[in-house]
Design brief:
- This protein folds into 2 domains: about 5-160, 2-Layer Sandwich (Beta-Lactamase), CATH 3.30.450.40; about 185-345, Hypothetical protein af1432 (Orthogonal Bundle), CATH 1.10.3210.10.
- The chain has 14 helices and 6 strands.
- The protein has helices at about 5-20, 25-40, 75-80, 100-105, 140-180, 190-205, 210-220, 230-235, 240-250, 250-260, 265-275, 295-310, 325-330, 340-345, and strands at about 40-50, 55, 65-70, 85, 110-115, 125-130.
- It has a 6-stranded antiparallel beta sheet with strand order 3-2-1-6-5-4, with helices on both faces.
- The longest helix has about 40 residues, at about 140-180.
- The model has no long low-confidence stretch (mean pLDDT about 85).
Amino acid sequence: MSYTNKIRLLLSSAEAISREQDTDRLLLMLSDLARDLLGVDRCSLFLIDRERGELWTRVAHGVEEIRVSADSGIVGWVAREGKSAIVKDAYKDPRFNPEVDTATGYRTHNLIAIPLFDRNGNVLGVFQAVNKLEGEPGDEDVELFTLLGGYASSALENSTMQRKVKEAYREAVMRLSHAAEYKDPETYNHIIRVGLFARLIAEKLGLEEEVCENITLAAPMHDIGKIGIPDAILLKKGKLEEWEWEVMKRHTVIGYEILKDSSSELLQMAALIALDHHERWDGTGYPNRKRGEEISLWGRITSIVDVFDALLSKRPYKEPWSLDRTVEYIISLKGKHFDPTLVDIVQS
């Protein structure tokens, strides 16, 4: 590939690199691009783990995760010094650490390693290209690698910031899920398990990872509307009067009203879950007596996992059911309370 075409490839890849927010996919994208640009056998992008004093990568062509001491090897030297290294014979370079070769059975002949900097000038990682397929690494390779390294640095820093924002958002959502817990004696563990069970069903349905992640967080918010139910009804020990039961059922609508206007796909999903998780496949549920696929998939999933976990759990008023008894009960309500497809998944 000519130098001009390599520059074109680099420029055409810039937008995709800047959009990618998943760190693992980003590392793989950058490593594949570097291998094509430089004509090398393997590439790896190491990130600094300052707490452990290590450099690590989950993406290195031909190997699983690698962790190396930040004090050893050429990668460690580049990270410490903040300088590039071009090595034409690795085993003659005193900085080279052959431990990774020994562990993987690979043989490093030559390599280029460049530091990656954040916007404050701190080293955040090292990009390494190993074994030029034709000839030795030269100045043109370093120039191309450095250009790609600039893209990589910006993308990785953005990915890290996005991850931190996502983690904060996740925590806020979970705190919102627990809001109803302060008024209703359902346990924290039940709320978490509902999310995990919902994810398992979503995975069995072959839904995309982002959807599976969203329902993990959205399903625990199914009863958020209970914060709008008077304590005298919500916490009443005995059987509810008919009018009290009508008030209690409004927690579905209240939850929907709380969540429905968000622009977040996750909270939009949670709104439908809050509204639909007491609907029944045969149309006898509440609040809207929806039937079949009129009920959102998210509501159908949460309905079955909520009952499933509640039956398996010990409560003040009951002992936990066995798994066999619980599954038999779920099967008995196939096509009545629950979506038949979801019952088949639980049965399996």
